[in-house]
Write a structure and sequence with these properties.
CATH class of the largest domain: Alpha Beta
Order of helices and strands: EHHEEEHEHEHEHEEHHH
CATH topology of the largest domain: Alpha/beta knot
CATH architecture of the largest domain: 3-Layer(aba) Sandwich
CATH superfamily of the largest domain: SPOUT methyltransferase, trefoil knot domain
Number of strands: 9
Shape: elongated
Structural class: alpha/beta
Number of helices: 9
Bound molecules: S-adenosylmethionine
Length: 243
């Protein structure tokens, strides 16, 4: 996977991405990240890339041409036209399913807005997907781009070690993950659930599945409606008395 990020703050993207698991994946050559500073494509002698909004109103708007040129600088060297994701609070809300779809791509271009956003005309011209990370407004698209790149990267082969598998994570199969415990067995008077110490693999798996069902039912009943439930799962849920 190759990520290209069009941004006014390339350091923010590089610093955020090149640490921990994603940083390790870059070092191993499983991922690559190229940032493109939109300011390098300014068509203004003062290096500006924003201007006042037509029609008046607060704030500044990123101009179309520098964004267009920054994007073309990437597209012109690629063998095919990649998806161009504009980070926007007005976009489709990102979720695990979308992460899975994006993980199938070979390259992705992220476009990060700032100020009041970007001139609509260039968005119409280059953007294939408008993506939001939630119903709130941030100062820029850099954090959303990092969030999406992180969620997509951990689904790519080799990025997680076997012992960090994404298979049972929350949202896989529309269920939240079961609770996790580590050493010591007893912490401030709180005991690890005894079944996890039993060494009985099948019983542990069943307990985890039930915890997963319970959590999802309690915290995200909307997900449970879409979950792929076995007969045993349905029976377990039906037997819960406090529904
Ligand atoms: N005026 C715009 C509006 O009301 O839709 C908001 C602009 S916001 C202050 C500046 C930039 O931050 C946006 O262009 C976008 O790239 C990014 N951004 C802000 N909130 C976001 C969110 N929830 N998801 C994705 N990107 C967001």
């Amino acid at each position: 996977m190759k990520y290209y990020v069009l941004t006014l703050f390339p350091d923010m993207i590089r610093d955020g991405f090149q640490t921990s698991i994603t940083g390790r994946a870059v070092e191993k050559g499983l991922l690559s990240l190229e940032t493109v500073n939109i300011r390098d494509f300014s068509v203004n002698k003062h290096n500006r890339v924003d201007d006042y909004p037509y029609g008046g109103g607060a704030g500044m708007v990123m101009q179309a041409e520098p964004v267009y040129l920054a994007c073309q600088s990437v597209i012109s060297k690629l063998p095919r036209n990649p998806r161009v994701l504009y980070m926007s609070p007005q976009g489709q809300v990102f979720n695990q399913q979308m992460a899975g779809e994006l993980a199938q791509e070979e390259e992705l271009i992220f476009l990060c807005g700032h100020y009041e956003g970007i001139d609509e005309r260039v968005l119409e011209e280059i953007v294939t997907d408008e993506v939001s990370i939630g119903d709130y407004v941030l100062t820029g698209g850099e954090l959303p781009a990092l969030v999406i790149m992180d969620a997509v990267s951990r689904l790519l082969d080799g990025v997680l070690h076997n012992d960090e598998s994404a298979e049972f994570d929350s949202f896989h199969d529309n269920l939240l993950e079961y609770p996790q415990y580590s050493r010591p067995e007893q912490w401030r008077g709180k005991q690890v659930p005894p079944i996890l110490l039993s060494g009985h693999h099948a019983n542990v798996e069943r307990w985890r599945r039930e915890q997963s069902l319970l959590r999802t039912r309690e915290r995200r009943p909307d997900l449970l409606e879409r979950a792929a439930l076995t007969k045993e799962d349905k029976k377990f849920l039906a037997n819960l008395t406090d529904l």
